[in-house]
Amino acid sequence: MRAHIGEFEELVLLTTGVLHPDGYAVNIGAEIEAQTGRSITISAVHTALHRLEEKGYLESYFGEATEIRGGKRKRLFKITNAGVAALREIRELRNSLWLQLPKVILKGI
Amino acid sequence: MSRKPPFVATKLLRTIVHIHYLEEVEGDLEETFNINATNKGVFRAQLLYWMHVLRAIKIYPVKRSPSNLLHEIKHFLFLTLAFRNIWKRKGTHLINAIGLSAALVSFIVILQFTNYEKSYDKFHEYGDRIVRVGFDWGELNEHGENKSIYASNVPAMGRLLEAEIPEIETQTTFVPVLTIKRSCHIRNPQTDITIRAENGFYADERFLSVFSFPAKVGSSKAFTEPNTVVLTSSFARKLYGDEIETALGKSLTILTDKEENFVVAAILDDVPSNSHFTFDYLISYATINSPRLQQNIYWSQFYCYVLLRKESSVANVTSKLLDLTKKVYGNDTRASIFLQRLHDIHLRSKLREELKTPGSESIVKLLMVVAYVVLLLGWANFTNLFLALSVERIREVGVKKILGSTRIHLIIQFLSESAIVNILSCLLGVLCFLLVSPYLTTWIGFNTGNDAIYPDLFTAIVVFIVLGSLLTGALPAWVLSSYKPLKAMQRQIHELPFYSRIKQTLLYFQFTVCFVVLASAWIMKRQLVFMQDADLGMSLGQAIAIKLPPITDETTRQLLESFKQDIRQYPVVDQITSSSSIPGNRIIFSGGVQRTSGEKLEGNNVLNVYTDENFVKTFKIEMLAGKNFESTMSDTIPHVLLNEAAVDELYFKSKEEAIGEVILWQNNKVYIAGVFANYNHLFLREAFEPMMLTQARMRHQFISVKFKDNNYRLTNSEMLSLIKDAWTNKMSNIPFDYVYLEDYYGRQYKAIQTEQKVIQNFAALALIICGIGLFSVTALMIRNRLKEIAIRKVLGARSENVISLLLTDKVSLVFLCSVIGSVVTLLVMDSWLKNFAFTVHLDLLDFLLPLLIIVGVIVISIGYHAFKAARIEPATILKNE
Fold this sequence. Notes:
The complex is a heterodimer. By secondary structure, chain A is an alpha+beta fold. Chain A is 59% helix and 14% strand. In chain A, α1 crosses α2, α1 packs across α3 and α2 packs across α3. The N and C termini of chain A lie far apart (36 Å). By secondary structure, chain B is an alpha+beta fold. Chain B is built from 30 helices and 25 strands. In chain B, the strands form 3 sheets. In chain B, strands 1, 2, 3, 4, 5, 6, 7, 8, 9, 10, 11, 12 and 13 form a 13-stranded mixed beta sheet that branches. In chain B, strands 16, 17, 18, 19, 20, 21, 22 and 23 form an 8-stranded mixed beta sheet that branches.
């Protein structure tokens, strides 16, 4: 069975895909902040990234070190095929649910 | 504000975040910080940084992966390593272990003794509620000192206390048999065995319920009737043989001034040796009791112990005592009574009429200090050696750290090394103790009690020592493990500055202690020798004293006289005298004296010895004025001789003035025939007391026989058997009970001898421990300086230069230790010498000698290594570079 993905994790996974191939904790966090307007702490992003990596939806490798980071390397994240599949599945599930919504509700909105 | 993330936070981050994630996390946080710093200002960025770091705590898994520490512990790797390391330096460690175990042995021994001393009277069930009531007459002697404070009390006091003070549950009164009777023998009428029995009490029926002396046979209740006795087991065995049960209900005869028959009511277990009074038998108080005795409020030689009620306190009762004494002795009396807790008596009470020579609290305290100091010395050695070794091991630490050891690894490794050495020396020490404990009493000169080892104490000591030494091992372990790998590898470090100072301090401490005990032992020895060699003003050599029972009938007295006549004929006998006291025996007769002319004299006390005309000649006491007694006694008025102190006490202007005067001793007229020089009737701890000799035919308790200087080539035992034969010839019914006067007098030195011996042994021990420590520390120090020495030699230094270089290092050690040590010794010994009436004077030699010994020890412990170092071949050392 596919591992469960939380809402925040889904956001992180999607954003990693958006930023492909340069996504790492800081810019992923910044991107989510920019797109959603939520305030994101970097440790939350770290947790989500590592959890997704454990689940196999992301893979990581060390990127270049920059001066702004005090000479430490970045850990760059790349979405895996399994990650893409998971995203797709979620989307399909959502779509199918959307299609089943009664017209009445949609009208009200 | 610097544009950098807070350092402390980063440090914290590094400790909490797993190494695997550290780089990215740190980088990310720093990047965020920099962005924030630009956008929001440095201060807010720093706050945010802190916040992020703190969040990291809960988010990231613990720093280290499951460490191989567990693996090491599981497979005893650290033990293997420790053994290997110890083996590599086995000489040093062996010395270390020997020093530590020596300290341990003495620690155990001393604690044995002090525990024994402290265990006195703890076996009584109600011990914490039993209180002795002492008596203080409040009389001052000519020096303004109160010597009239008694451990005993007056016969009437027990009942008065019980009646007047409700806090007192019950009381018991007892009195030594010899206070009432001059002597005491007990005979078993069935077997006709008669034994001398001087150690017994007349005790009332409450004695056995207040104190806990359990009955073996019979009931301790059956002790109210007159003419009943209670015996201890070992005493009963002497009378009745091994089957002591049979003694119960039997009768026995007690011979004092008369013969009386008694019934044995019970047989008790023996009195434990740690009781502040011991007895062989108890005679029921009813035997001597009379209404007159019960109301006697002046004879202060009876012992009164009260049992307080559970809820009452000593302070509470004390507050009521004053009213009681006022009631009994009138409002303006100087007399008072006071309470002493049973548990305090043995160590704290030094009054007149103590039942047993009291222990000395100061000795116990001294010994406790000694015990802990010895232990400290041992530990100091240990720490020192470990620190010295650590210099050699810095590289090892560096390599280990580079290979991935963490600090905990290293600490565990060093600690296990120190633990092994400690446990080994502990085992060695305990083994030694078990081996030597049977001989302790003779070697050390004090009694550690019958049961050689108190087991709880024993475990406690061992645990204490192992723990303590582990703690001392912890300091070097901590220090060593703290080295940064690179720093440790970079260059050869010869000394760790701060820790070398610790090392120095420990050495100073050790040798100061050595100095103090050495000097003290020496001064005590000098005082002892001074006392033993001093001119006592009399001579005791070649003399024996025969103890006499009280002689009441005229026939025995005549027989005694004829015995004296007989042996006076012997050519070996020089002098013979009978007297109520002999030198070394505390004079029991004493009383106030008045002159018949002049002012009334207040509060004086003159000791009195009843004797004959030969006393002065026998003991070679110098006559200063007047004449010795005539051989025929004056019928009208007793003649007396005074000593110089008594002449002063009576305010005679000169010795000559006193001659021919008549004075009143306890309201009896006596005629002063002469004045003799002061002599030390008791040993030199006691000052000269005013004293007089009274010519009398009664109250004699000793016959002293002085032999001529041995012209007849007879051995002591031959001379003795001559006297003994003469005695049995005439006095067949009285046992020949004798002492050598010199031995008798010498008994007084025993306590001080013990004290001195303890300190002396301790001094030797301290020197050995410190010497061992210095020896091994020097070995390591010189090993680190070998290259320096080699270079010096290449540059032309000679062996003697090298040796003196290494020795002069320690000049300040010697100097400082002896200065501090001298001051301490001076203070301690000065107060010790205050106990004595006649003392040696401290001089420079007293401090020079310990100094020399310490220099000797230092030279020996360093010298060996220095000599070896001085003879090295420089090339072999230097070619390694």
